## 1
Amino acid sequence: MTLLSDELKQSAAYKALELVQDGMLLGLGSGSTARYFTEGVGRLVEEGMKVRGVPTSRETAELAAELGIPIVTEIAGQIDLTVDGADEVDPALNLIKGRGGALVREKLVAAASRRFVVVVDESKLVKQLGVGVLPVEVLPFLWRSTAERLAALAQSLVVRGGEETPYISDNGNLILDVTMEGGIKNPADFGVELKKLTGVVEHGLFIGMADTVIVAGPEGPKAIGRLSGGAVARSNPPPKA
Ligand code: 5RP
């Protein structure tokens, strides 16, 4: 990763920090971009802000604990604001997520959120989803059978980490990385087809879930969606790096 890419990720995450308000229950995403947001929340907590966080992965839970952010893993009602990264973002703000392996909890947290804000650098913008692999989490039990049925819908798939030393998700499952040559023509329909397959726990297509995407480019962070309507909630400047 270049230094520039890191700076862009940081600027997108810091823009999202402007939405954090005292008393909020926050969904804390996973991956290198969301990490900047969680670190920023940690600084706000250190300054005295009272927020709690629902982590989307064990890694984020550990980071939040180190930073002194109170952690919640069961909720009644909704999360006020979730901020997370993405692997691909299309013009309709549909996403591919999960290349970091946290897609199930990320989707659960996003689905439980009043507001789901995605933070990316501009390299994540695509015309059509499916430029890279689509992660699909499957149960280990009879996974080859699940993979065969999944392979019938795709060009190819691989077991993340390889069959000898497979990657195991936080939920104890496998991840199959699916390639769709020429991209995913209709992501909403494809997501429905994937969910019908017994053995599939969840897939990385996040359709119609993001209400704002903050994209950082050399000109600075730009919000697409609701934030661009001026709904920035907190007037404090973002914390210094
Ligand atoms: C993890 C994810 C991440 O949000 C996604 O992979 C983006 O990560 P990064 O910000 O490191 O590029 O979906 O499951």
## 2
Amino acid sequence: MTSQVLLIEDNEQNRYLTTFLLERNGYSVRVAHDGLSGIRSATESPPDVILLDIQLPTMDGYAVARSLRANAALDRTPIVAVTSYAMVGDREKCLEAGCSGYIEKPIDPETFVGQVEAIADDHRSGFDGGPA
Ligand code: MN
């Protein structure tokens, strides 16, 4: 079964590159351009992985992550923060908001998908049933 990724990202170039890399590795990708539409999409049909930009208009990624984590139906869904913020403490803020892990922009096309999978596997390993 193809793994479904929900990509919440407002920057078109980032959406293009990320989608390209994931699809090349066999993932199915749907995109949301802002936090609210991302939350709606995740709620309507929980994806296997959520990739979440932190710097988003209106509602930042931390608020989006907290909202997603308030939905028990998404407990098993890894949320991978992808952000250009590189300040000390941002990783902790991502994790506190409910993200499973953190990848810094600019992403490395050679390692990006592997980083996503490592964070997703680590998140899922925290549940008794293992990979869903
Ligand atoms: Mn952004």
